[in-house]
């Protein structure tokens, strides 16, 4: 069914979540959509907020008793999704384009070989799983990033996890996100390479937005160390998993 299932994994940070959700609700006319909230054991006020907006949008709220991490939470959202286009977006992304959902859906409608469409991505990923930051394409209003893209659509090797839309047929083929990466890191690169390996293209669509917590808002939270004792160690481990899993197609440049 054509439409957009929008998955947001949340863990406290209600202020950012409100900004993100309200920007989505304000700018999402013109295409059927649903919000799927996976609450990773947040404080009670997060549930209270979503209870209060139930009448403003088609909303599915799923609460976990503890923080399972974004990868497992996203897979929960995928399992609950009703529409053919399944989007994952961070809870600190502010949308500024009232036609953003239409733009993404129209791009994917026109080319069934597009597996994933993101708001940011890199054209090159190295053999070791690291990306070429100078190849970043986006229209994010953040001062410390590359210049925003001029073109409407740009092919990329990998999309950034801040916001990306996957085709249901792709997800059915690859069976969702790979949970072997554990709590977090590299799942966006992994699903991007899975898309390429399955014969699809990955693209970035020119949508004006802002990633408020660029670099990882959850990782800066004081509670984060309760779940991940060594974040940098986890990142290095997952880069090794990624580079080993995809050694037959890495390095990759488009």
Q: What would you note in describing this structure?
A:
The structure is a single chain. The protein has a single domain (4-253), classed as Spore Coat Polysaccharide Biosynthesis Protein SpsA, Chain A (Alpha-Beta Complex). It is 32% helix and 25% strand. With 254 residues, the protein is of the alpha/beta class. The chain has helices at 14-26, 44-52, 70-80, 100-110, 168-174, 187-197, 224-227, 231-245; strands spanning 4-10, 33-40, 59-64, 85-89, 93-95, 114-118, 120-122, 124-125, 136-138, 153-156, 158-159, 163-167, 201-205, 209-211, 252-253. The strands form four sheets. The protein has an eight-stranded mixed beta sheet, with helices on both faces.
Structure described in brief:
This protein is an alpha/beta fold. It is built from 8 helices and 15 strands.
The gross shape turns out to be globular
Record field, number of beta strands:
15
Helix content: 25-40%
Instruction: Report the total helices.
Output: 8
In the CATH hierarchy, what is the class?
Alpha Beta
Instruction: Indicate the CATH topology.
Output: Spore Coat Polysaccharide Biosynthesis Protein SpsA, Chain A
Lateral arrangement of strands in the main beta sheet = 3-2-1-4-12-6-13-10
Intertermini distance = 31 Å
Largest sheet: 8 strands, mixed
CATH architecture title: Alpha-Beta Complex
Low-pLDDT regions? none
Q: How much of the residues is beta strand, in percent?
A: 15-25%
Name the assembly state.
single chain
Task: Give average pLDDT, whole number.
Answer: 93
The assigned structural class equals alpha/beta
Number of domains: 1
